[in-house]
TrEMBL record:
Taxonomic lineage: Bacteria, Pseudomonadati, Pseudomonadota, Alphaproteobacteria, Hyphomicrobiales
Keyword Hydrolase: yes
Example GO molecular function: triacylglycerol lipase activity
Organism field: Vineibacter terrae
InterPro entries noted in UniProt: AB_hydrolase (IPR050471), AB_hydrolase_1 (IPR000073), AB_hydrolase_fold (IPR029058)
Key word Transcription regulation present: no
SUPFAM superfamilies given in the database record: alpha/beta-Hydrolases
UniProt entry keywords in alphabetical sequence: Hydrolase
Protein name: Alpha/beta fold hydrolase
The AB hydrolase-1 domain, residue ranges: 22-275
Length: 305
């Protein structure tokens, strides 16, 4: 696993596809390792002429963790936020956006397409808002502007996201993770037990680190909304959202698209808060078409021969 030293920490990453093709940086969500990306989606993007870069966010997977800061007190942070007071966190989404830019720097990529999923969608909003010259296009998947007043997620989905397994036993961790994936997943495309178990076990065995989830949640709470920043984004923007998302309802995605000048909003029937196999080819085609349309003619890759 290659490691890049950026922004004062180590970031674990992978690349897929032809290094001469335009780069798309994929940014994952809350507590999600790079292995949470559906391999079919990544492979399809590469097949559409994109070099795909995935990575572990800080406090996740094989990247630097912030265990020395201690566990997050989420109930206390929620109470603090409800009282209108600032939430204390070891880092913010701003730091995580800088990690993404730092990884592009380490890879020698001057300008890239960026795609973020859920919390990753928040991070790419910050990258596109602050680093116009570095972003060819932006795709925001199942995310939000964090504007106050947007519809909340379903209580059972939020509870499942923030609840820990009943024990540290591997079997219980896998059971809990499978239950979570079913609760937040796409109701029209439920995974089979065997494929879901294999997917979950792969991620649990790579690294199970729930402490990082709490601190990343603090980072979201400490970072506020991006309403004003979204209005300044100049990169061509595609917003993709599942019609059945139980964590971030579709109005959250609609809000992002309404705030970014010229953004397109694609609502996907039957899709929840995941990337099911059945939708990966279609979603990759949408993203790739958006990326290639955003490349100026003089920067288009030349055809071989």
């Amino acid at each position: 696993m290659p490691i890049a030293h950026v922004n004062g920490i180590d970031i674990a990453y992978e690349t897929t596809g032809n290094p001469d093709h335009p780069t798309i940086l994929l940014v994952m969500g809350l507590g999600a390792q790079l292995t949470l990306w559906n391999e079919r989606f990544v492979t399809a993007l590469a097949g559409h002429g994109l070099r795909v870069v995935t990575y572990d966010n800080r406090d996740t997977g094989l990247s630097t963790d912030f265990g020395s800061w201690g566990p997050a007190d989420l109930p206390g942070a929620i109470a603090t936020a409800a009282a209108g007071k600032p939430v204390t966190a070891p880092y913010t989404l701003t730091d995580m956006a800088r990690d993404g830019i730092g990884l592009l720097d380490a890879l020698g990529v001057a300008k890239a397409h960026i795609l973020g999923l859920s919390m990753g969608g928040m991070i790419v909003q910050l990258i596109a808002g602050w680093h116009h010259a570095r972003v060819t296009s932006m795709t925001v998947v199942m995310s939000t502007s964090s504007r106050r007043g947007l519809p909340p997620g379903k209580p059972e989905a939020m509870k499942a996201l923030l609840t820990r397994p009943q024990s540290g036993d591997r079997a219980e961790i896998v059971r809990h993770a499978m239950a979570l994936r079913r609760i937040i997943g796409s109701p029209a495309y439920p995974p089979g037990d065997a494929s879901l178990r294999a997917f979950v076990e792969k991620n649990v065995d790579r690294r199970y680190y729930p402490e990082g989830i709490g601190r990343q949640y603090l980072a979201i709470m400490a970072s506020g909304d991006r309403v004003d920043l979204l209005k300044t984004i100049t990169a061509p923007t595609l917003v993709i959202h599942g019609a059945e998302d139980p964590l971030l309802p579709p109005d959250c995605g609609r809000d992002v698209a309404a705030l970014v000048p010229g953004a397109r909003f694609d609502l996907i029937p039957g899709m929840g808060h995941d990337l099911p196999d059945e939708l990966c080819d279609d979603l990759a085609a949408r993203v790739a078409a958006h990326c290639h349309a955003a490349i100026p003619p003089l920067e288009q890759p030349r055809a071989a021969g």
